[in-house]
Amino acid sequence: MKNNSFKSNEVMLHTVTRIVTFIILSFSVYLFFAGHNDPGGGFIGGLMTASAFLLMYLAFDMDSMKKALPFNFTALIAIGLLLAIFTGVYSMLEGDPFLTQYFDYFQLPILGETELTTALPFDLGIYLVVIGIALTIILTIAEDDA
Asked: CA–CA separation, 25 vs 19, rounded Å?
């Protein structure tokens, strides 16, 4: 009797996935940091990161990806929401309208004079929420056996 079960050789798929994932994640980080001055920010950066993670989930099996990315995406949503809400509430505590943006220039050791703004933590909160929601929905559908 012939054994028809064989181990699939997906070396090319895994190699290309690693390269493309690195490119997508690099671009998502760029979009995230460019967001408060140029188009981009937490939402589109989060979508790009979620698409990179989804590509990895498609190329590799679900169990190995859960070991490699041991995130609780539901908790990621909560952390992101709290961070985004706190950014808005902070401006109210200062006596300004909700989500007033503050910025100043700081002298940082390696970067030199750098502008820091409160839009960055807000964008980080949105970034985490988008990643958490997108991957929770997609992985819930993928894990459905029905």
From this structure: 10
Tokens of 21: 């994932």
The phi, psi pair for 138, rounded to 5°, reads -65, -45
What is the percent of the chain where pLDDT is above 70?
91
pTM of the model: 0.84
From the centroid of its chain, how far is CA 14?
21
Q: Where are the beta strands (DSSP E) in 1-146?
A: 103-108, 112-117
Note whether 130 and 124 are within 8 A (CB).
no
Structure token pair of residue 36: 């408060």
Please state the length of the chain: 146
Burial of 110 per CB tally in 10 Å (0-12, 13-18, 19+): exposed
Distance of CA 127 to the CA centre of its chain: 5
